Amino acid sequence: MGQKGNTPFSFQEKAWKKYSNGYSGMVVAPTGFGKTFSIFLAVLIDFMNNPSRYQKGLKLLWITPLRSLAKDLARAMQEAIDEIGLDWVVEVRNGDTDIKIKQRQSRQMPDVLLVTPESLHLLLAQKGRQRFFNALQCVAVDEWHELLGTKRGVMVELALGFLKHQHQNIRIWGITATIGNLDEAMEVLIPTTQKKIKIVAREKKKIAIIPVFPTEVEVLPWAGHLGGKLAEEVVPIILESKSTLVFTNTRSQSEMWYQLLLEAHPDFAGQIALHHSSIDSHIRQWIEEALSEGRLKAVVATSSLDLGVDFKPVDTVVQVGSSKGVARFMQRAGRSGHSPHELSKIYFVPTHSLELIEVAALKEAVKTQTIENRDPMVLTFDVLVQFLVTIALGGGFQANDLYPVIKNTFAFQEITEEEWDWCIFFITQGGAIGKNYEEFHKVTLNEDGMLVVEKRRIAMLHRMNMGVIVSDAMMRVKFLSGGYIGMVEEYFISRLHSGDKFVLAGRVLELIRVKEMTAYVRSSSGRAFTPSWLGGRLPLSSNLSQFLRQKLARARHPDSREKELQFLHPLVARQSEHSHIPAEDEFLVESIHTKEGYHLFMYPFEGRLVHEVMASLIAYRISLLIPISFSMAMNDYGFELFSDSEIALDESQLKKILRREHLMEDVISSINATEMAKRKFRDIAVISGMVVQNLHGKQQNNKSLQASSGIIFQVLEEHDPQNLLLRQAYTEVFNQQLEEPRLVAAFERIHHSKIIYKFATGFTPLSFPIKVDSLRQSLSSEDLTSRIQRLQQSNWKSPRKKR
After folding, report:
1. How many CB atoms are located within 10 Å of the residue 343 CB?
2. Within 13 Å of residue 300, how many CA atoms lie on the same side as its CB?
């Protein structure tokens, strides 16, 4: 039904039945199996069976994390409705929706409305919001796994809690791909309803992971450049497929790959496109439509920031470099293969030889269905105070009535009455330091005992700044002659001089001048910088790092079926000969002396973000034993401490610096936690409305945001240390940036491992990519290549010294 005569899957039929019996729930199924229809058709079937239950107005509210997803979905839903012969209307409402359509919707809602979390909050901020939801029967939350564990997920929880309180009979349904903690995911979405069910599809998407092997194994691998060499191998894959998605992890990598593919096969001009979140939305829309209609052979896209835009299914998916997580990899793979039972093919292009170990690790994870958890966020007071102003704006609330509603959400089940009173005090008085500042007195108590927003300016600023995605200040990039190309982060442009060239949206542009928050450019050609966006650093998931350690240990004696490990044999042999390949219960430390100085390498395989913290901690602990200073470098596999004076450590000292005792105290001493919290506080200050990001359509630049939030941070530290938003900044640093639980687990594992301490006189295959990463920060790409080649040659000649 609605699927062109196909028989429904059993999970769809189960969802339809449970829905009609008044259940809320969550549907779990792989990409491409019609998860959308399991809920959407449930509402239509229920309406046809019980039309008297339904009134005129909005019946189904569909929340999606993606604007680009909404358009395609709305079209598919409207087609199904028209086929059935109902007179329902499906519409979209988000930041791209025309103002006239929004005004019409406010007068008369469609039957089905697709919104983002932000658009839903804007509806709740409208006067007389009740009228929008009087006929509402169901709220569906699409791609719940993408929202869970983020502040946008908390926005959804708060909105659902409020709607459920107002309209008790609303059914709430989540739609999700597989994640590790499904029961918790349902608990977060539907905390209060008694009648709820989790429906998991029995069908599994078959995935073929095909590694793209280089012509020869590089014994001293380095990140990034191998991918470039392999562009030649990707060309035939694209030519043999009708449509291909090439996924990269970062926007800068996507810009680079777009150029590489054009250089490798100039005939791709006009046949391939580039898609990431910093490209103008009109261009992105055109690309999505062109790919759907088969006018493009391939699109190079990021998915960390675009959440993998839900294009129509494509034939082939290519993944460039590590996907950093099992769930993300499976989702990207699921975008290929037109029909549910078709094989999903994903080609893995390593950016350096060692990444082939990751192919073996991913195959193992997919086989054993080991998928990451998404941990929900709790007690995010910045999101809560923003929401309270939203509710005060749309008609007001009474503090005593709203408290139990908030406490019923998963995110705020632990909130105390004192914390609640503080939130009310904050929105009415601005907290302890806001008393003397009018702009912090946003909400007032009227004579009916309702907390409302009365000032027009506050209402307007609140609507303009609603949401929880605080990006680094973005600069618009425009041609001098007019015409908008996209956005780059302010910090990137601030490093360029007039006349410098950079790449954006696949074009080489020359910077002419910067005025306010706009960079004016002209078209150019030749060598150019690729922008790096700060949002691009994905952490390696703990599941994947566990499989990586396992596969590396097995690489000494690879199984004949594991072609990746067999291919890497020369690299593994060299690592064993010059140092050691750690077994699963071993922890490798390498001390390497070269012409440049002394290097200490450690390999926890916990991902770059965790290694950043570990490197600072180990450097701090060594400095307590020996007066020495270090520079640091890290990648996903390990980290380096480098010094020009000898790092003379014996085995007992090494054990001491790797101890698990006093871990977090030493971490706090080793990093500037206050400085990190101050940076975190910038986002919290913007979300909570203490600092205004958008003023009358103009975005404040980074410096002024950082400055204003920095001043508030210092004042709070001094005069209001118990401030909940200040406390939250430190909590976020510990849980997100320092990944406290994961650090503790890593040191626990090291404690139970045998420490292998090796000395070498040249770089080993494991240490070389980390060394290159440290050079990359200080050298241009041409200097980098020649410097690396010199290093590789000198390294071959270096004599071995045994200790």
Report:
1. 11
2. 27
Residue pLDDT, tens place only, 234-257: 999 999 988 888 988 777 788 888
Residues written for the chain: 803
SS3 for 66-108, per residue? CHHHHHHHHHHHHHHHHHHCCCCCEEEECCCCCHHHHHHHHHC
| Integer-rounded Cα radius of gyration of the chain | 28
Query: pLDDT category, 226, cuts 50, 70, 90?
Result: low
Strands 112-115 and 196-200: unpaired
Element (H, E) at 491: helix 490-493
pLDDT score of 703: 55
- Using an 8 Å Cβ cutoff, are 26 and 174 in contact? yes
Q: How confident is the model at residue 203 (pLDDT cuts 50, 70, 90)?
A: confident
Nearest C-alpha neighbor of 791 from the set 595, 580, 638, 578: 595
Do residues 491 and 482 make contact, with C-beta atoms less than 8 angstroms apart?
no
DSSP string computed for 553-579: HHTTS--TT-HHHHHTHHHHHHHHHHS
Neighbours of 283 (CB within 10 A): 17
End-to-end CA distance of the chain: give it in Å, rounded.
73
pLDDT band at 604 (very low <50, low <70, confident <90, very high): very high
Could you tell me the maximum CA-CA distance found in the chain, to the nearest angstrom?
Answer: 86
Q: What are phi and psi of 601, to 5 degrees?
A: -110, 140
Residue 312's pLDDT is: 61
What pLDDT was estimated at residue 799? 39
Neighbours of 463 (CB within 10 A): 15
Q: Is residue 63 within 8 Å of 116, Cβ to Cβ?
A: yes
Of 165, 105, 169, 170, the closest CA to residue 141 belongs to 170
Range 701-707, long-range pairs (CB < 8 A, 24+ positions): 701/473, 701/490, 701/517, 702/472, 702/473, 702/490, 702/491, 705/473, 706/679, 706/682
Q: Distance of alpha carbon 340 from its chain centroid, rounded?
A: 26
Q: Position of tokens 């770089």?
A: 763
Nearest to 123, CA basis, from 163, 161, 96: 163
Q: pLDDT value at position 205?
A: 77
CB 72 within 8 A of CB 310: yes
Least confident piece of the model among 230-239, 532-541, 609-618, 713-722: 532-541
CA distance linking residue 673 with residue 683, whole number of Å: 16
C-alpha to C-alpha distance for 642 and 242, rounded to whole angstroms: 49
β pairing state of 344-349 and 444-445:
unpaired
* Tokens linked to 489: 């982060």
Query: What is the spatial distance between Cα 4 and Cα 8, in angstroms, rounded to a whole number?
Result: 11
Q: Which residue has the higher pLDDT, 568 or 698?
A: 568
Q: What is the pLDDT of residues 747-790, one digit of tens each?
A: 999 999 999 999 988 899 999 888 887 776 554 555 667 777 77
- pTM, 2 dp: 0.81
Q: What pLDDT, on a 0 to 100 scale, did the predictor assign at position 783?
A: 64
Rounded distance between C-alpha atoms, residue 668 and residue 616, angstroms? 10
Q: Which of 34, 49, 42 is nearest to 3 (CA)?
A: 34
Give mean pLDDT, residues 454-466: 90
Q: Which residues contact 777 (CB under 8 A, 6 or more apart)?
A: 633
Interatomic CA distance for residues 440 and 426, integer angstroms: 8
Q: Which residues of 299-329 are buried (b: 16+ CB within 10 A; e: fewer)?
A: bbbbbbbbbbbbbebbbbbbbbbbbbbbbbb
